[in-house]
Specification:
By secondary structure, this protein is an alpha+beta fold. It has two domains: 1-35; 39-115, Zinc finger, CHC2-typedomain (DNA Primase, Chain A), CATH 3.90.580.10. It contains four helices and four strands. Strands 1-2-3-4 form a four-stranded antiparallel β-sheet, with helices on one face. A hairpin with a 5-residue loop joins strand 3 (85-87) and strand 4. Helix 3 (97-105) crosses helix 4. It is elongated and about 80 Å long. It starts with a helix and ends in a 9-residue tail after the last helix. Bound molecules: zinc ion. Zinc ion binds next to loops.
Length: 124
């Protein structure tokens, strides 16, 4: 066996190992995406009420006391359609109730999805 052939073989092996790692990573990502079910997220109005966040006002955007800073007047804006929130005082914001849950309870994406019942098939 020539040394050039040996090197070529080693390079091939390394490439194959990299390809396997890439495939495993892609599979893990697909599983994460497929197991999160956005349609199972709780209704935003019910969710915020259950979190002890009283929504005040009418229309798409409601006002609430912000739980992310010492709030004396309602600084938090909550969009009831999708649960998006944005604080005018401290800048806390997110696009849905999942983002709120992650931020408020210091959870990972998956842990928050499980807690909100939006994760399919157990908690593995
Ligand atoms: Zn705030």
């Amino acid at each position: 066996m020539s040394s050039a052939y040996y090197v070529a073989q080693q390079v091939n092996k390394a490439r194959q190992a990299q390809a396997v790692r890439n495939a495993q990573h892609a599979q893990a990502q697909r599983q994460t995406q497929s197991r999160f079910d956005r349609s199972r997220l709780p209704n935003p109005v019910e969710y915020y009420a259950a979190q002890g966040i009283a929504l005040k006002g009418q229309g798409q955007w409601r006002n609430a006391l912000c739980p992310f800073h010492e709030d004396s007047k309602p600084s938090l804006r909550v969009r009831i359609e999708n649960g998006a929130f944005c604080c005018m005082a401290c800048g806390a914001k997110g696009g849905d109730v999942l983002a709120f849950h992650i931020k408020r309870h210091g959870l990972s994406f998956k842990a928050a999805a499980i807690a909100l019942g939006a994760w399919k098939g157990g908690s593995r």
